[in-house]
User: Fold this.
Amino acid sequence: MFGQSKPVVLESYGSRRKRGRPPRWLVLLLSGMALGAVAVVVVQERYLPKRLSAAASTELRSAYEKAEAERERLQRELAETSQRLASAQADQKRLTDELAANRTTTESLRDDLSSIVGSLPPDPRGGSVEVRAGRFTTKGNALVYDVVLTRERAGTKPLAGVLQLTVSGQSARGPETSVALKPVTLALGSHEVVRGTQALPDGFKPRETTVQVLDRVAGKPLGMRVMLVK
Assistant:
C-alpha cells in the first residue's frame, strides 16, 4: 500500500484528436485571412477605381507637373498684369491731376486775356466787330500778323466770318500796289486773337495793312481798320 506510486497522466478531451492535424483555431484564422483578401480584391475590382498601371501613373504625374508649371506661369503673368494695371492707374491719376491743373491754368489765362483785351483802346471806326489792336511785321517775303478782334454783343453762339487782309506798298518794279491775302476763317466769340503768316510777292515792300472782318468772302463788312506794317 505504501510502495512507490506511479505518475497519473490526465488526458484532456482535445488530446484525442488525430496527431498531425492542424488546430481548429489556426484553420479558422487562415480561412478568415483568405476571405478578407478575397473581399478586398472584390471591392477593389467592383466598387473602387481601377488601379493605374506604371505607364498610366507616369503619364498622370507628367500631366500633373505640366499643369503645375502652367499654374505657376499664369500666376506670374497675373502678378505682372496686376503690376502693370497699378502702374497704368497711377499714370491715369497723374494725367487727370495734370489735366485739372492745366484747366485751372487755362481758365486763369483766359481771364487774364479778357482783362488785357478789355483794357485795349476802342476801335476808332466802331462796328459790330472791332479791330482793337494789331501788329504787322515782315519776315523774308512773308507778312507776320497778330490781330485782336472783339464783339460787344457777343452771344453764346460764335459769329462765323472771315478776316481779309489787304497789304499796300511798293512793288518790285517801283509803283504803289495792293495785294489781297488769303482770307482767314473766323469763329468769333467775345474776343479772338488771330495770328498767322502769309506770303508776299517777291520784292514787295509793305507799308500798311487794311484789316476787314466780313460775314463771308467778299461779303458784308462787319469791321475795318488800317494799320501800319513795321
User: Anything to note?
Assistant: The chain has a mean pLDDT of 83. The two ends are 173 Å apart (CA to CA). The first helix runs from residue 24 to 46. The longest strand covers residues 159-170.
